[in-house]
Amino acid sequence: MNKADRYLQAGTRENTRRSYRAAVEHFEVTWGGFLPATGDGIVRYLAEYADKHAINTLKQRLAALAQWHITQGFPDPTKTPTVKQMIKGIRTLHPAQEKQAAPLLLLHLEQAVGWLEREAALAAERGDYRNVMKHRRDIALVLIGFWRGFRGDELARLQVEHTQADAGAGITFYLPHTKGDRQHLGATFHTPALKKLCPVQAYINWITVAGIAHGPVFRKVDRWGNLAEEGINTNSLIPMLRRIFKQAGVSAELYSSHSMRRGFATWASANGWDIKSLMTYVGWKDVKSALRYVDAGGSFAGLAARPPNGASRCTISYRI
Questions:
Q1: Where are the alpha helices (DSSP H) in 78-231?
Q2: Domain segments of the chain: what residues?
Q3: pTM (2 decimals)?
Q4: CA dist list (Å): 221 to 123, 129, 136, 161, 270
Q5: pLDDT of the residue at 157
Q6: In terms of CATH, what superfamily is 106-310?
Q7: 3-class DSSP assignment, residue 220
Q8: Which CATH fold would you assign to the domain 3-93?
Q9: What does the alpha-carbon distance between residue 196 and residue 198 come to, in Å, rounded to a whole number?
Q10: For position 107, what pLDDT does the model report?
């Protein structure tokens, strides 16, 4: 790979490249299409799978096919009027409600963390170092994921050298790129220390017991207590979280990695955060994105509402 190709490849996320390759392969191999394609060919392809796949899946495949044609120097067949009309028709005949993860309830977060704390203490008493590490990691994972409102891939990409924690004060994370950061400028996220369910102390406890000084924050602990060098896989987060909640006696099947992000947004709106403060804290760029994560039961009473005395309500106060 030459120098130019290396930079071009770095401009696209690996997950995106993988999904695009799979989409092009589906068009060519599974359906038997020919590349370069025509607008009529794209329409026939969409017609074949209109009632089999979600509209978002079809649009993702169109994006992959569009990129293939553009990078190969061919006209983009996905932008023809008939293809646009086809997408509109599919939306009309096959409307689908977007599936969303259930928001993690604060009650269930408390229940899970309480169980993990007790299990960590018991493991320490019997000298079970593996389970001490495992439970400390899980506590940090759910508390940081909830109070910071991180996506699953952001949790998996956190690095110790990009994290600064001050016990009793707060914790700051730096991510070189996030989903909405198209220019890869990087973003810094701060979360204060709390009197209960504190993400700062949970992080300090985890990296201390694990002896981590650099590299990924969250890693796999194998059956012998060995800590992996690489970070956890994003795809492993959902089974990991469901295992945690199931062991703690919570209905685990309700939750996914997005549940922590939705749970925080729901908690914040119910506690008086205005939409601007929530967007700034979590990192959303538009109101529509923010409202998708807020549970209807704790929806904003008014988007133009202001905290008392005109202050920006962007602090976390959780005391019991």
A1: 81-93, 106-125, 129-148, 152-157, 199-210
A2: 3-93, 106-310
A3: 0.70
A4: 15, 11, 11, 20, 36
A5: 93
A6: Intergrase catalytic core (1.10.443.10)
A7: strand
A8: DNA polymerase; domain 1 (1.10.150)
A9: 5
A10: 93
